[in-house]
Amino acid sequence: MQVTMTMLDGTEGSAVELPEAIFGLTPRPDIIQRCVVWQLSRRQRGTHAVKNRAEINRTGKKVGRQKGSGGARHGSARANLFRGGGRSFGPVVRSHAIDLPKKVRALALKHALSAKVQDGGLIVLDKAAVADGKTKALKTRFAQLGLDNALIIDGAEPDPTFSLAARNIPNIDVLPVQGLNVYDILRRTKLVLTKAALDALEARFK
Predict the structure, then answer these.
(1) What is the CATH number of the domain that holds 151?
(2) Which of 26, 37, 123, 204 has the least CB density, counted as fewest CB within 10 Å?
C-alpha cells in the first residue's frame, strides 16, 4: 500500500510504499492484548512486602500461663492476631514478569502497526529535525499537522534538537526505532514514523 509522505512544515512529499507484511495485516486484539499485559507486568516493581511472625522483633516468651486464665493458650506475642505481630499471607518481594515468545511479540507489533493504518492514525514524516530547539515553534508545527497526541518514531538516533524541543509538549513522545513498542503505539492517537524509521522497520522484519 502507498501513503503520501508529509513534511514537518505541512506540505506533502512523495509517495512511499508500506510493506503489506507489516502494515497490511488484519489486527487481532488477543495478540495485542497479550503483548500489552507482558509489557505492563515487566514494569511492576514487585517490591511490596510485609513482615511475617518470624521477622518481628518481639519477645517469644509465653504470653500467659497455660491453664487457669480462661483465655486462649497463646505461646508468642509475635502471632498474627496480636497488635504488632506478624502478618499472615502478606505480599512478598517477587517478580511479576511473565513469558511471551519472541515471535508473538514481533507479531503483536505488526498487528499494532496495522491497526494504526486501518484507523487512519499513521503519518509518515520526511524527517524529524528542526534548526532551532524552540518548543513553541515546534508546537505550532504540530498543531498544523493535527498532532496533539502522538508517538514519533525516528531512526536509530533521533535528532537531539528535535527531541529537546518536543519533550516539554504534553502527550508527545519521541523514541528511537529500537524503542517502538505495542503499548506506546496504543496509548497515543497518532503514530508518526520518519522515513529512516520506516526503512529500519523493513530491515528488521525482512
Answers:
(1) 3.40.1370.10
(2) 26
CA pair distance 160, 162, nearest whole angstrom: 5
Are residues 36 and 122 both part of a single domain? yes
CB 39 within 8 A of CB 115: no
pLDDT in tens, 155-189: 999 999 999 999 999 999 999 999 999 999 999 99
Domain hosting 145: range is: 2-44+97-204
Mean pLDDT, rounded, for 113-120? 95
In order of 60, 108, 166, 185, 192, the CA distances from 188 in angstroms are: 56, 16, 15, 6, 10
Strand-strand pairing, 122-125 and 12-17: unpaired
Total-model pTM: 0.84
Domain tally for the chain? 2
